[in-house]
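Instructor's aside before we start: the two examples that follow are unrelated to each other. I chose them only because their records fit on one page, so don't look for a connection. First example below.
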Amino acid sequence: MNYFKSTLSDEIKFRVLYLGNDHNFENLVMSLLGEKLCHYFIADDCEQAILLFKAHPIDVVIAEFYYLKGMPECTINKLRSIDPNVTVILLNENHEIICSPLDLPCLAKNQCPLKPLNLENLLSTIISGHKDIYDQNLTALSATAFSHSSLAMTITNHANQIIAVNPAFTEITGYQVTEVIGQNPSILSSGRHDKSFYQKMWKTISHEKKWSGEIWNKRKNGELFLEWITINVITNNDGEITHYCSVFADITERKAAEERIHKLTYHDPLTELPNRRAFLERLEQNIANAKRHQKLLAVLFLDLDNFKDINDTLGHDVGDAVIKETSFRLKSCIREDDLVARLGGDEFVICLTELNHSADASVVAQKILDLMASPFGFDDERFILTFSIGISIFPSNGESVLELLKQADQAMYCAKFSGRNRYSFFDESMQQAALAKKELVRELRSSIDSEYFSIQFQPIINLLTGDIEKAEALLRWTHPKLGEISPAKFIPVAEDIGLISELGDWVFRTCAHQVKAWQEKYHKNFQISVNISPKQFQDASFDLESWVSFLSDIELTKASIALEITEGVMMNEGAITDQRLAMFRGAGIEVSLDDFGTGYSSLAYLKKLDVDYLKIDRTFIQNIHINQDDLTMCEAIIVMAHKLKIKVVAEGVENEQQCLMLQSIGCDYAQGYFFSRPLTVQSFDYLLQPKH
């Protein structure tokens, strides 16, 4: 057994097995085939031939006629049983080709007529036989692919009548082969596409000989489906159309998945409004249109006031329902061409296009505020939520997406700090205010654990005895660079950035230590009033029990600390307010109602409040000695409070006349500059010392 590998050329194509005993002739065959050889194998018996045939891919077998002996168990038959597609060329004793591959259907000698061809034609015979087998294999492979493809395939004649479909077509459309043969593919038409659609499609097929695209079609059961289809034209040698071949896939589910992904990418899942990404893209387009048509455009930045309280008190389910209802209200306030989106949380944004005047934006803003005045109702809860709205105008406040959003955001904060439930247009002063606030936030964060914070104490005088029995704790921030910073400036910022609870806890614990020291030194019943922020009071994570435990740990009576809560918090009826007040009462901590008379108060409402002290706001006190109405109001408050066993503290007393008037109408306590300004610990300590 011999094996030769040709090295004449890399383009040699055939692997040939020579089966015979004539060594001179086998060398002659090798030289005749020349560069068309890839490998040349030689075997001189059946066993060697079968071993080589199994070990190597063979394209052509050249065998002497002798190897047909022993039919049907001859060597040639055995090789053909291994690879039925191999090309076999038989030679007679004169080395003439007597049989080409297609002449061996049964290998019977009397069915293989002699073909006296010259040996020089050996190469052309091999190529011809190889091509015939290749064509047969390709045809069989194409038929297999047609039958087994997961893509639906149809072949129509030049008249566009279906002549063949594959099983995938039947599976996708529900039509059997017999139902569509001879039919026009329009049998699948869904009716979704108009006549012009198909005219454009066939125009493209006519000019470009192919077309691809999406088409809605209809299954046999009437169900619509979306397909991606490619139609190709088949022509003859003269360029005449003979057939059309189409391949399509059912992409209904894939398209639906893409749309779901697109919706998640560009829409808020709760409200189904456009989200931040979608809004930014649309706003950029609207700005370009406004530039082109020289029109005004407005961006409204909206933030729900105190929305966190809803989540904390009523739960996130109610909070989600509020957000959804709010989105419906907002959509009802704008035109079809305008855009409303949810940025996240309780923030919304609106783009108003093609405005004639900037005042047009204020009309929409006021419409929103008016609509929000209608109470929200969920289960047994009814409440009102308001918006703080900031407005920026293109092009006067900016010409880019980021500029307009930034300016509207700053204007919104201006509206919020101005009292909420209002709108505000951006102006340049807000830019400076925003920068100042940014610096304040940065310094507040860095100062939170520093010695820059301190507590001053303002005396509260018993008007009957003239003794200092109480003090109000007032937080102060002295910054090394910014100087004294008003609580009116930094307290709202601390509430916004989430530092108020940390500050409040520090104030409470510091005051507890201080009141203990003053009780031991001067007055065993001395009390300090500590202001508690509405944000901290209504924060579900506020741990009141830790405060109660702390007072026990330092052996301080619970009445040593009174917590001052604003009237607005107390009037906000809800589960968390009632729960907090009950916890205070159960722990023995006294509660003082601050700023009475400035909010929603009424004398009748006092009976519902479980408080120990009521503080009359300074606005009622400042004219009490010259205005009879103010005096009468204060007297009525005091009488009603006493009937309810509530003691009264007057704030902002600045002169002796006010003090005398308050004494005359039975007020219990008073504080103000007439008695003393807020003092440091050292100065207050001196004030408490007995005077001889």
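Example two begins here.
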Amino acid sequence: MNPSSLHGFIQSSIRKQQQIVTKLQRFNMTWFPKLAVLLAASLVLFIVFFIWRDSELDAFTDIGLDDDLSQVAGELTSDKLLGGLLAPNFTRRSCLSRYQSISYRKSSRHEPSSYLVSRLREYERLHKRCGPYAESYKKSIKEMVSGRIESSSVCRYVVWVAKCGLGNRMLSITSAFLYALLTNRVLLIYEEADMANVFCEPFPDTTWLLPKDFPFNYRLSRFKQKYAKSFGNTLKNNNNKISVSTEQLPSHLYLYLSHDYSHHDKLFFCDQDQIILRNIPWLIIKSDVYFLPSLFLMPSFEEELSKLFPDKETVFHHLGRYLFHPSNQVWTLITSYYKKYLVEAEERIGIQIRIFDKKTSPFQQVMDQILTCTFKEKLLPQVDMGKSIVAPSGKGKSKAVLLTSLIPSYYEKLKDMYLKHPTLNGEVINVYQPSHEEKQRSTNNVHNQKALAEINLLSMMDVLVTSARSTFGYVAQGLAGKKPLILYKIEDNKIPNPVCGRAVSLEPCFHSPPIYDCKAKREVDTATIVPYLRHCEDIHWGIKLFNST
């Protein structure tokens, strides 16, 4: 249904409901028939709502959506299993993207370690044994409610909670998963309505979603930094000490690891405090950051992490592709758009633009930065502004530019430039933008489905240009396994020099790392402690993983 006919349908439905109410008043019907008619009219509007909701998704592609089942059959090769990252025992139709994504992205040059593959299979067995609705889970829930800790229990849990943009969510979930893997815990996701039908289940024969009847569900969304029973505040109120006695330990504990966390919250990254946490069955983590790099600062995890990730720059690349598979609905958006607009191009270029402050990053300056970078790096050709295109030649190399941004202005400017003026080298440039939401709406389910679709489309491009400090871009580059060109942040209305630069490491940046040496008990630059943690290319106070050589 197109927008104009949809609008007419809604207006017609509203008028009909108003007419019904007028008739009810005129004939003075008794209350029961009035109620029956009003319920019928309300049902019409309820149906209209779902038609409107689906039309929002249709607007992403403006094409007919059809499930791509052509690749459901066939042998699951090592490539389709991403070098062993993925387990083969899934029903393929339940999640088309799991085994089809390799057909849209180039094969990764980065092989997962055999040790990581074996540990993932071990984790899947643990999750199935201890996950929701298993007998061990039910027993653990009873113990948590009673406040009694059973030392013999093999099932312990990390519950992830957050309210933030999709990129931040994916990065913080990955961090929580690695922590669960290192501590032999089961990761459960507190999913609200805005994340429904965005991802497939990542683990076979079980779910990673926290059941709706979890005893403390009502507290999770309200859990904030100042919550009195959090790990950080418990330390703060007890002279940095928590009793290690099993009898005195709580059955569950809240960990606040978001961007505005306190010094006491950050003591989570100290080995001596991990000894205490090890004995608490339920840890509830609220996080909106990629805290994963700081796990590499902890001596107790060092040996295991070295075996899991001999290549330090591929942690998110491997774990992100393992965990995050678009639902069938989102995958249909992705593949339909790709086939209609991108598949025929000889080269595909992804440009991701994130504007944090329009006042400090005016449109024209950002546009000039994009053009300067892409011209300098020979990704896009310059045009002859003195000439107009009379008819497309179609003879030169064809390039498709996928531009993602919340606003349409950059797309419109770039598209018009290549539509109206010939390129100096004869290349044919087509520019596309799947959506333009105007502003981030992280609590909107349709918005999040579109966001995941765009992240995956970017990850399918041959070359990537991303915005500094953008977690959206971090996720796209990580899934792609490509080091992007980074558009450096414009400061004080001045275009930076250089305007862009190639990322040195594939890893995302941790924007708010701890600045505390747990052994020396003093502030320190944590980018100087181990050779494979250094400051990020796009934000000087952040830290990220690099190969030490």
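Residues 338-545 form one domain.
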